[in-house]
Design a protein that fits this description.
Strand content: under 5%
Structural class: mainly alpha
Oligomer: single chain
Order of helices and strands: EHHEHHHH
Number of helices: 6
Largest sheet: 2 strands, antiparallel
Helix content: 55-70%
């Protein structure tokens, strides 16, 4: 999955502003947490891809040095261990936007303060 920039939905952008105020975390870190939160919920299924009318992130800003890891996790969740029909880059990018959108929505409900982000991490 290769991309240089990714635009997220206007709804996610709005919720990220609120989350940033409540948690003090930057939007790129919140997007990473949102992505993992959504991936934990499973595949998107037949959900419609969100709009691309919101913030734009550079690939490295969004995923940092873990871009390949996030891409592998996305493929694993969306395609399974042995994909019969692998998704193309365009479809994977749409799913990435979809997972960020879904995850930001989940975070906007769960995270009212910085400590709430810590509560998302399972105890050992």
């Amino acid at each position: 999955m290769h991309y240089s920039k990714l635009k997220i939905s206007s709804d996610a952008t709005s919720k990220l502003r609120s989350l940033r105020q409540r948690t003090g975390l930057t939007p790129n870190l919140l997007c990473r947490i949102a992505l993992i939160t959504s991936l934990e919920e499973g595949p998107l299924g037949g959900a419609h891809p969100p709009d691309e009318e919101g913030s734009e992130f550079n690939a490295y800003t969004l995923t940092g040095e873990y871009g390949a890891l996030f891409a592998a996790l996305l493929r694993w969740v969306e395609e399974g261990a042995t994909p019969a029909d692998p998704l193309g880059d365009d479809e994977l990018l749409a799913r990435l936007r979809g997972h960020i959108h879904r995850g930001v929505g989940t975070l906007s409900v769960r995270a009212k303060a910085p400590v709430d982000i810590l509560r998302l991490v399972p105890a050992a």
